[in-house]
Amino acid sequence: MPILSAYDGTELAYHVLGDGPPVVCLPGGPADSAYLADLGGLSAHRQVIRLDLRGTGRSATPQDTASYRCDRLVDDVEALREHLGLDRMDLIAHCAGANLAALYVSRHADNVGKLALITPSVRAVGLTITGALRLETARLRRDEPWFPEAFAALAAIVAGKATADSWKAVAPFSYGRWDEAAQAHQATQDERTNPEIVAAFGAEGAFAPDTTRTALARFTRPVLLLAGEVDLGAPPGTMAEFADLFPDAELVVQPGAGHYPWLDDADRFVATIAAFLGSAPAPSS
After folding, report:
1. I need a labelling partner for 152 at 20 to 30 A (CA). Which of 57, 110, 134, 262 fits?
2. E strand segments, 148-254
3. For residue 28, is it within any domain?
4. pLDDT in tens, the chain (285 residues)
5. Would residue 260 be called left, alpha or beta, if left means φ above 0 and alpha means ψ between -120 and 50 degrees?
6. CB neighbour list of residue 120: distance below 8 Å, 6 or more residues apart
């Protein structure tokens, strides 16, 4: 497992899978990047490089816990690029990792070739996902056997009456199929997420949406937003709004997919991402 040293001496781990032109992957959570695996088999097409964000996975815990804040993690991503010796890197980010990717692009646009955002969080760009939209998306699953209990829990969350049991009950909505594999994946997600790190990631000052949106409007390289058709966390309608923030962005909605589309249909997911990434990014001029 390779290691690099961040600006403050924190040791950051990253994982290299496959061969070919590299693509750097930023996990959501923030959580151990292991849940991404090789994104459904993408490593057969590109060398997948997963970064364990500080305090997660195999990376060290920093002395300054305020350094978990999303805008400060940008320096860790830049340290990885420099460590890898890449003039320009293609970047994939999932969920909350998309906030970090957006902030990285806003500060280091020349260092990014192509950008793929997978079921991304929208906090960094200040979009709103309404409760009504989440409920509307959830109703697509009305024929599932678990739907009544999960939908009642979601309605309680939207109404501001959530309990710990409510959040557990809505887990099936994150997956295109609530089968044994999805349930096992969800269990490991819970184990890999540290609430303290999650809170620090989005602490006050982490995001400046107007500034970020202005920067993204100047990012002219290709961008892909991939949404899951039934994903409550990143509904396709909001993902279309996100895509509109870029000059050259394509939105792809994966049929029947939830928040982890590489689990729901790996072949379709990999085909989409591999076609978008294509060959290696051109060196910066």
Report:
1. 262
2. 223-228, 249-254
3. yes
4. 799 999 999 999 999 999 999 999 999 988 899 999 999 999 999 999 999 999 999 999 998 989 999 999 999 999 999 999 999 999 999 999 999 999 999 999 999 999 999 999 999 999 999 999 999 999 999 999 999 999 999 999 999 998 889 999 999 999 999 999 999 888 887 777 788 899 999 999 999 999 999 999 999 999 999 999 999 999 999 999 999 999 999 999 999 999 999 999 999 999 999 999 995 554 554
5. beta
6. 93, 94, 95, 97, 98, 99, 101, 225, 234, 239, 242
| Domain total of the chain | 1
- Determine, yes or no, domain membership for 174: no
DSSP 3-22: EEE-TTS-EEEEEEESSSSE
Residue with tokens 């009305």: 142
Note down the domain range covering 102: 3-126+194-277
Q: Are 197 and 88 in contact (CB under 8 A)?
A: no
Q: Which two tokens stand for residue 102?
A: 């957006």
| All residues at 6 or more sequence positions from 128 whose CB lies less than 8 Å from its CB, including other chains | 122, 238
Q: Enter the tokens of residue 190.
A: 């819970």
The amino acid that residue 86 corresponds to is L
CATH number at residue 34: 3.40.50.1820
Joined tokens for residue 3: 């290691």
